[in-house]
Amino acid sequence: MYKLQLCCHSGLDPESIFIEYLSFTNISLTTTWIPFFNGMTKRLNNMNNFTKQNIIYGYDGTFDGFLCCAFESFSRKEIPTDIVSEKDFQPSLLEQFNIATDLEKSGRVKKSIREKISSDALFFLRDALFTNLTEKELYMLEFIRLGYKTGSKIMSMLSNDIVSKLTKAVRFLYNESHRYKGFIRFSEYGELLVSSIKPKNFVLPYVAPHFSQRLPNEKFIIIDETNKAVCIYEKGKLSLFDAKDIAIPKTDEKEVFYRNLWKDFCESIAIKERFNPKCQNTLLPKRYRDRMTEFQ
């Protein structure tokens, strides 16, 4: 039975499990084993009994909200046409099912992902939600369904289209977050430092902690114009809010003076003979420059 238990956790189909088990034993098939394998087949087949439905799941855009969508999908044994957050929803002729965030349900899904797949998979799904991948929620739902069948090895199944697309999207999120840690420029407004960014992914949860450690005694705001969000740091507390319209005040003479000093510094340390636009565009893409003082 020990060898059989190992096979059951390997994600193999019942027939493969049976053949592998017999190859390590001298036990012949009897009627005693038939109910066992029939029950196993039924449990695995239940994972495939999902029907595609013309329905759109709506949620609040949070990770717990998405996990509640996954909970409803498994409870209703259906695959929705789309899963959209409230801010991205557009009128449609399809039926819409608005799913309220329930921490008890999301907690059950988190627990099952940890136990049946891995903790790394749970963090991976959380990061995937912050990417700009089109229809990411549907890919994440399929990732969970596939992970329940294959277990922790799903994290290395890069040949699978679902896993590959999510992995590339998450890697892009990490790379963009890393770049913004070096490309963000703050302007001083009284006692407040303000910066504005326009990323492709939702990078604030990754960038803000970096600056809270670098500037622990300052008060700063980072505005995400793409995702309509703002990060506020004050007195050791970091907060993240939704913000549709934020007006940045005009810069005063003192701020303009220091901006010009920074531009003069960048020009003075530049070596004209080693000017390499191609290399510069590779290390510092142009889409970041409109928010950087030295390029304004």
Task: Give the tags.
11 helices; five-stranded mixed beta sheet; 296 residues; alpha/beta; disordered N terminus; elongated; three-stranded parallel beta sheet
Secondary structure layout:
Layout: H1 2-8, H2 14-23, H3 34-46, E1 51-52, E2 55-59, H4 63-76, E3 78-79, E4 82-85, E5 95-98, H5 103-116, H6 119-129, H7 136-150, H8 161-183, E6 187-189, E7 192-197, H9 204-214, E8 219-224, E9 229-234, E10 237-242, H10 253-269, H11 277-283
Parallel strand pairs: 1-3, 2-4, 2-5, 7-8
Antiparallel strand pairs: 6-7, 8-9, 9-10
Radius of gyration: 26 Å
Q: For the terminal residues, how far apart are their CA atoms? A: 70 Å
Average pLDDT: 82
Largest sheet: 5 strands, mixed
How would the global form be characterised? Answer: elongated
β-strand amount = 5-15%
Structural class: alpha/beta
Low-confidence stretches: 1-37, 39-44
How many structural domains in the coordinates?
Answer: 3
Helical content stands at 40-55%
Secondary structure tally, helices: 11
Spatial order of strands in the largest sheet: 6-7-8-9-10
For the secondary structure, the number of strands is 10
- The helix-strand sequence is HHHEEHEEEHHHHEEHEEEHH
